[in-house]
Amino acid sequence: MSSATLTRELVIKGSRSLPGFPVVIAEIIAALDDPDGNFDLLVQAISRDPIISARVLSVANTAAMRGTRDAEVFDIAMATALVGVDRVRHITLISSLNTFVAGASRSGMSSSFWQHSVAVGVSCEELARYIVAPVSPAAALVAGLLHDMGQLWLYHFNAQAAQACWREATALAIGVDVLERKYFGVDHSLIGAWLAESWHLPADIVAAIGGHHQPDAALGIALVPLVHVAEVLSNALDLADRADNRVTHLSSAACEKLGLVWNDDSRALFGRMESRSRHANAFFATPSLI
After folding, report:
1. Candidate from 36-50, 123-137, 204-218 with smallest mean pLDDT
2. According to the model, what pLDDT value does residue 176 have?
3. Using one digit for the tens of pLDDT, what is the confidence trace for 122-174?
4. Domain 8-20+107-283 - what CATH class?
5. Residues 6+ apart with CB under 8 A from 141
6. Is the pLDDT of residue 195 over 80?
7. Exposure string (b/e) for 234-269, b if CB count within 10 Å is 16 or more?
8. Core vs surface per residue 123-149: b (16+ CB within 10 A) or e
9. How many C-alpha atoms does 131 have within 13 Å on its Cβ side?
């Protein structure tokens, strides 16, 4: 496998051949501190996208059937109010990225990439609610969903070399990022951070994507150790059912920074991560990523 040194300029230039990054994601993040504005934004975004609209209305009508409502829900604003902003935001973010990933994937990218991204995103969201440190669950979800976008870029850039990195990393039982740095000069974490910067995402999300394999250098940004720990737990719990799931490193400093102590209370957290990730992957299944 021939090596190639990648630069930020080359990565950003290469990203132009990818589908446009969903603008609604950046808009939702920007509106997180404005609940009223976020509600209006969600209604507008959902109304523009038939796939998201169908999913939100489906969830709303399922909820209505379990309650006392007799009439079917057809109005997006009513559906959002019925289901709740948090859950609708969750549906909108994952649906938007689902479409983006499906459009950006090449034949060499397995569906397990998306399944892993969803599992880590949901695990980040649950972990954000579990720890004491003030981390927005919505921002944690986005960071988790996007943490491996650098891998998507590498497969788009050179699928054969990216696959070879995975095979060699598995054979040597080391992190794939080590092999990526050997053959590309940079790893998928840094590539993902470059992409996130170009998409104008918040600095803490950029840092979390860039540091999810080596969090100790940026422990002061709570989202960095959170994404690292959430991905390790996702792999340890085998949430994405990937054949290459393995735990190569868990930063003790990251766990300490988040105030995590693994005891009997952790089992409930693991259970929520498992049930929610499996439900989300079933609900947002992407058959085209095969």
Report:
1. 36-50
2. 87
3. 999 999 999 988 888 889 999 999 999 999 899 888 888 888 888 888 888 88
4. mainly alpha
5. 90, 93, 94, 121, 122, 124, 125
6. yes
7. bbebebbebeebeeeeebeebbebbebeeeeeeeeb
8. bbbbbbebbeeebbbbbbbbbbbbbbb
9. 28
**26-33 long-range contacts, CB within 8 A, separation 24+:** 26/199, 26/200, 26/201, 28/89, 28/92, 28/93, 28/138, 29/138, 29/139, 29/142, 29/201, 29/202, 29/205, 32/136, 32/138, 32/139
Q: What is the structure's pLDDT at 205?
A: 94
287: confidence class by pLDDT, cuts 50, 70, 90: very low
Helices (H), the chain: 8-15, 23-30, 35-48, 50-66, 76-83, 85-104, 112-130, 137-146, 149-172, 176-184, 188-198, 203-210, 223-236, 252-258, 266-283
- The packing angle between helices 137-146 and 85-104, to 10°, is 10
What pLDDT, in 10s, does the model give residues 265-282?
888 999 999 998 888 888
Q: Which residue has the higher pLDDT, 284 or 214?
A: 214
Domain ranges of the chain: 8-20+107-283
Looking from the CA of 265 toward its CB, the CA atoms found within 13 Å total 6
